[in-house]
Amino acid sequence: MSSPDPSPQSEWIREALEKHEASLIRYAQSLSGDPEQARDAVQDTFLRLCQQDRAEVTGHLAAWLFTVCRNRVLDVQRKERRMSPLSELDLETREAADPHPDAAAATADASGQLLVFLAELPPNQRDVVRLRFQAQMSYEEIAEVTALSVGNVGFLLHTAIKALRRCMEDLEKPNPARSIRPRTA
């Protein structure tokens, strides 16, 4: 006996999953820094989509998904900050904020440096840059996800890109402190 045809609702969910799951995971991981937490947030997002009335999200599904996912990651982070102070083991096993010397050598290329500079931006600028360039969302979709105005999204993107460009230009300038001078006898 064959299984019944999938319902339009389940087919819609399946299509949304196929289209948005990978970019949601990347976005959630960029926010949380934890692949497991990112997958959990995306799973929760799609569970909430299953409970959502399709008519309420039609026309802005991507923005709705990214909003729910972002809120879920932020909720989990707030909860974790309240729940567990860092132990000695956490401090020893957690990656340092500064790159390891081997990693610093590996990230000498421009894209690696750009990611380092991106991490130094204020959170709201990082968020709009990630949504724009990783999730390829429009200004309107970003505004809906972040609850900012479209004009504010444009301003934050402009400011972030200007800051990143300045950092990259500074990196290309010769730095006397970095140069190795020969010893004189």
Question: Quick gist of this model?
Answer:
The chain is mostly helical. It is 72% helix and 0% strand.
How is this structure best described in words?
With 185 residues, the chain is an all-alpha fold. It folds into 2 domains: 8-83, no CATH class; 101-173, Winged helix-like DNA-binding domain superfamily/Winged helix DNA-binding domain (Arc Repressor Mutant, subunit A, Orthogonal Bundle). The protein is 72% helix and 0% strand. The chain is built from 10 helices and no strands. Helix 1 (8-32) packs across helix 4, helix 4 runs parallel beside helix 9 and helix 9 (139-146) crosses helix 10. The longest helix is centred in the first third of the chain and has 25 residues, at 8-32. The termini are far apart.
The total domain count is 2
Strand content: under 5%
Radius of gyration: 21 Å
**Separate helix tally:** 10
* Record field, number of beta strands: 0
Poorly predicted ranges: 178-185
Shape: globular
What is the residue-mean pLDDT, rounded to a whole number? 81
Q: Structural class, judged by helices and strands?
A: mainly alpha
Order of helices and strands: HHHHHHHHHH
Question: What summary fits the major beta sheet?
Answer: none
Distance between the termini: 91 Å
Structural key phrases:
globular, mainly alpha, 2 domains, 185 residues, Arc Repressor Mutant, subunit A
